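Quick log. Single chain, no ligands specified.
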Amino acid sequence: MRACNPPDCSAVRAELRSLLLSAGWRPDAVDDAELAFHELFVNAWQHAGSPAPAVLVCLRPTTLRVAVCDDCPDLPDSRASEDPYAVSGRGLHLVRALTHRLGVDPTKTGKVVWFELDFAA
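-> predicted structure:
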């Protein structure tokens, strides 16, 4: 049976924050990256049933790419809930609004959901 709370991703968030700040990223862009990462991580746990989703972070000179991997082949549903009081159903829309690119790559055993955020000085 799966735990009620998602696995702790605070270490990844702190490392992501430290990496981006040391590379000269603006604090508001760092906040966006952290929130987008957290949304993808919790989605992989909650909707794909991954007990501890794998996370890949790649910082290129002008672009951050964060990927969250899970073992569920079902592609994410990006339809927003029609209920304005729903507690879920808006995560991918939030990630899309915070980042420059969002995508999903199917794998043999599941999928990789990723976003890219471009550096802005």
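The first strand starts at residue 54 and ends at 59.
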